[in-house]
Amino acid sequence: MPVKVNSQLPAVKLLEADNIFVMDETRAAQQDIRTLKILVVNLMPRKMVTETQLLALLSNTPLQINVDFLHMRTHQSKNITQNHLDTFYKSFDDIKTEYYDGMIVTGAPVENLAFEAVDYWDELHQILDWSRTHVYSTLHICWGAQAGLYARYGIPKHPLAQKLWGVYHQTVENPKHVLFRGFDDDFVAPHSRSTETLASDLPHDFEILSYGERSGLSLVVKKNLREIYSFGHLEYDRMTLDFEYQRDKAELGEEVVPDAYYPNDDPTQKPRMTWSSAASLFFSNWLNYAVYQETLYDLHELAKYDYFNL
Q1: What is the CB neighbour count within 10 angstroms for residue 106?
Q2: Residues 163-194: pLDDT tens digits?
Q3: Which residues contact 120 (CB under 8 A, 6 or more apart)?
Q4: 247 belongs to an annotated ligand binding site
Q5: Site described as Important for substrate specificity, positions (predicted)?
Q6: pTM above 0.90, yes or no
Q7: Which active-site residues does the annotation give?
């Protein structure tokens, strides 16, 4: 998929080195097609890493996509320069009159806080409300999934006895669902969280698509595919959990090794990448079946009807 972004974004050179096609603005302007518009609400602290991970996964179909990155104006980011945010990111004020085919809300390392205690909660809540009439399909990831369910339905998150951290087995509950088209019966996905959402709390018009014996809910969707909630991190690259392990070891003195991640649970060895094909297929299925084949040609029509509840 030709992903159209600012050609100066550092992630572009990394993706091109891996033979992932990223289209610059000049070439995109010469193509007479309706480009899909995707908004990424990037709440992760290492924003450049997350940019690269998501762009790699959004680049796996023949569709052309224009990607905008959004940051929280009410939060001071510590791991990225203000120049990077000013150059490559937009604020809600910049895009609130725009319409998007799809939106991704990432995770964030704030799950041990009450939702209302997160400094950008009101702003994020406003964005989620806005998406009802300005976005066709939204994919929520990890804390972003918990935040979406709480903001929209008041569904709480529940603390786990210990952090769920590693690569976990997931079972496809509905292999005929379009989001799991091409999947095997089982797959693995990274998880990194200290809280969970319970199946018993979900609204009646939701469907559980995958579940893990140890990880619990994996992927749930509203049946009209306007809302998709992934409680794992399929977007993580090979070294993300290793970074978290090394960080916690240095900052907290914790040496809890992520489950089923390093060969023989030995953190001196290179982590095994076991979820790449599932991640690529899932993001392609979301773009194809939940966005491209269902979205309105004229996105302004979203404002006229409550498509969110259709």
Answers
A1: 21
A2: 999 999 999 999 999 999 999 999 999 999 99
A3: 43, 72, 73, 74, 75
A4: yes
A5: 192
A6: no
A7: 142, 233, 235
